[in-house]
Design a protein that fits this description.
Number of strands: 11
Order of helices and strands: HEEHHEEEHEHEHEHEHHEHEH
Radius of gyration: 20 Å
Shape: globular
Structural class: alpha/beta
Strand content: 5-15%
Distance between the termini: 8 Å
Number of helices: 11
Length: 302
């Protein structure tokens, strides 16, 4: 995966957005200060009538109200783009109001443009699991990175659902990370082997080189970031102002030990404010302690 270095420097791990789903509805604590809802509420007042109508009625008091509509226009730009790019799908393609036919239509188009990489990030990974295994949604093309958001340890079951979905590249986004999350048990390289391979390894029927060729970390990529929101609303990483960066480092360390690529997006507004960073959200990596200056991408060809 190659993303424009100028965007990476700003904490973005994608080149262009695919705003296919307009609107959403709050699902868990991560949604409290949703940036997409803030943007949509602002654009609903835009002087350009096309932009205004596209976002009209999607928010109430600055929050998504559950209204959802589709926007196929970005797919045309996606198909026209000749240069390979990394695209991020916004908002949640697996929202309950998005019909399987719409999801399949998008996946079919993604499959025809294999030079591009498409990141699909969803909190509704359990719905994705059900749709895939009931064959209502087609398998994910190899150029799709499938991810789920986990902001608190109690939502680690989303990772379990993610691991049950066949995908070439699977990622977890810990953004906004509100409390320390232990990912170490999801880095077991044997968990993605079938039972026969596991037994062969355990009983010494495969040598180390053979075993290594069959191992695959269950997670391929980890994104981490503190909450980016107005200072009056932003929550500190780990609910502790002085330990926010320690929480980030703990994840970076877990990933390094498991040799899983990690991308630290930002420290978050509270840590940035208390540390006196110039960038309000703490996106400037040069201001961080060296041990959390990590912005890696999966090396596997997608």
């Amino acid at each position: 995966m190659l993303v424009d270095p100028k965007r990476v420097a700003k904490g973005m791990y994608w080149d262009r957005a695919l705003s296919l789903v307009m609107g959403c509805s709050p699902m868990s604590e991560a949604c409290a200060n949703c940036w997409a809802a803030r943007e949509s509420a602002m654009r609903a007042k835009h002087p350009n009538i096309k932009i205004r109508m596209r976002h009209a009625g999607l928010t109430t008091d600055g929050h998504f109200n559950g209204a959802v509509r589709y926007n196929y226009d970005p797919l045309e730009a996606f198909m026209r783009a000749r240069k390979p790019l990394v695209w991020a799908v916004w908002n949640d393609l697996f929202h309950v109001k998005v019909e399987p036919e719409v999801i399949n239509h998008c996946l079919d188009i993604f499959a025809t443009c294999r030079s591009h990489t498409v990141i699909i990030l969803t909190k509704r990974i359990k719905r994705a699991y059900k749709l895939i295994h009931s064959h209502k949604v087609r398998p994910f093309p190899d150029n799709v990175v499938l991810g789920t958001t986990v902001e608190l340890p109690e939502y680690s079951d989303r990772i379990e659902a993610l691991l049950g979905i066949p995908a070439k590249c699977r990622m977890v986004s810990l953004e906004p990370i509100l409390e320390a999350v232990d990912l170490s048990r999801y880095f077991d390289p044997y968990r993605d082997c079938d039972s026969h391979t596991k037994n062969a390894i355990l009983h010494g029927l495969l040598n180390e080189n053979q075993a290594a060729s069959l191992r695959r970390p269950v997670l391929d990529w980890v994104i981490i970031g503190g909450e980016n929101a107005p200072l009056s609303k932003a929550r500190p990483t780990g609910f502790a102002v002085l330990t926010g960066q320690a929480v980030l480092y703990d994840i970076v360390k877990q990933c390094a030990e498991a040799r899983v690529p990690c991308f630290v997006k930002q420290t978050g507004t509270v840590v940035a404010h208390n540390r006196g960073y110039r960038d309000r959200a703490g996106r400037d990596m040069s201001e961080w302690p060296e041990r959390i200056r990590v912005r890696q991408f999966p090396e596997r060809r997608l």
